[in-house]
Every structure is written in structure tokens, then in C-alpha cells.
Amino acid sequence: MVVTEELADELPAEAVEEAKARAATLLLAFRHGNQLAFDHELDLLFAEHAEREVTTLLAWIAAEAVRKAYAPEVGDRVLRAMARRAPADSGAVAVDEESADAARLIEAVAAGEVAEVRGLVAATADTTYLVGGLLQGVAMMLPLLPEGELAEITAELRRRHGGAAHVPEARAAV
User: Is the pLDDT of residue 72 over 90?
Assistant: First the structure.
């Protein structure tokens, strides 16, 4: 049996799950290159002075990932290599706006070219810009829909995804 003792500055047990969820939100935004979500979550953490708690949990998550992926001696070498390669300014999420081709994606979807759609998504390291371009394209097409089509489409989406809540219909201003 392992006996643990709580330290004075230790995060209370009831706050650990909340902090893990916040750390996961931050990691997801970073992983997917969503700079806006990353900055927003980081600003919330700074406003609440929760940097220490989340940093501790991020370090714990990273240590667990390394422990599960590598033997101890290899894991240490990987971490040392990462430390040497760390950029001087690590405050931004790496994004690649140039590789996101939303126009080609829309054309491939319209033509039913599944392989090309998969290829475009796989070739785009930062899908935030690809999805953003796709949303912009959809917004530009909304005013071209015949009257009533938008309501039918949104009703079908709600049926498929179980979203019963009614959201007032709005025409996109482009």
C-alpha cells in the first residue's frame, strides 16, 4: 500500500478534474492549431491565476505520454532533444495558412471525390484554416438557397445530431 501525503501548496483533490479538463482544452487548441481558442483559454487561466495548476497538469500529461510511449532511458533522450529544439518564442500555436485550400475542398465535396477530400484534409497540417475557409464558403452560398431550404437543412441536422433546441433562422450577410 502506498501512502500519500498532501502538501500545503498541492491542488485540492476536488479541483483536479476541473484543472485536467482545462488543460485538455488548452492542449486540443494547441494540437489543432486554433490560435484563437488557445489564446482565449490562456487569457482565462491568467485572469484566474491558475497558471501553476494547469502547468503542473500539462507536465503530468506530457510525462505520462512519454512514459507510455518510451522506455525510461529513451524517454529522457526524447525530452532532452525536445528541450534543445524548443523555439525561443513558444507563445503561439504553429499554423500553416498556405496549405489550407478550402476552394478545392468544396469542389471535391461537390464532385463527390471522396479520395481527394481525404487527401486534402490529410495534407493540411492545420485544419483550422481549412474548416474556416469551408465555413466562409458555406456562408457565401447561404443567400443563394431557395426560400425555406435553410430551415429544412438545419432541421435535418438537428434530427441527425439530436439538437432539439430551436435557434432562430438568420440569413447570412456576406
Answer: no
Please classify residue 85 by burial: count the beta carbons closer than 10 Å to its beta carbon, then call 0-12 exposed, 13-18 middle and 19+ buried: exposed
Task: Give the type of residue at 21.
Answer: A
pLDDT of residue 17: 83
Identify which of 87, 88, 70 has the alpha carbon closest to the alpha carbon of residue 79. Answer: 70
Cα–Cα distance measured from residue 140 to residue 131, given in angstroms and rounded to the nearest whole number: 14
Q: What is the rounded (10 degree) CA torsion for 41, 42, 47, 52?
A: 120
C-alpha 54/C-alpha 59 separation (Å) is 8
List, in order, residues 6 or more apart from 160 with CB less than 8 Å away. none
Cβ neighbours, 10 Å, residue 73 = 7
Give 139-144 contacts, CB < 8 A, sequence gap 24+.
Answer: 139/172, 139/174, 140/172, 140/174, 142/171, 142/172, 142/174, 143/171, 143/172, 143/174
Contact 60, 22 (CB under 8 A): no
How does pLDDT run across 97-155, given as a tens digit for each residue?
A: 666 788 999 999 999 999 998 888 877 767 777 888 899 999 999 999 999 999 999 99
Q: Determine the Cα–Cα distance for residues 59 and 83; give it in Å rounded to an integer.
A: 13
User: Cβ distance 136 to 105 under 8 Å?
Assistant: no
What are the residue boundaries of the structural domains of the chain, listed by start?
13-85, 97-161
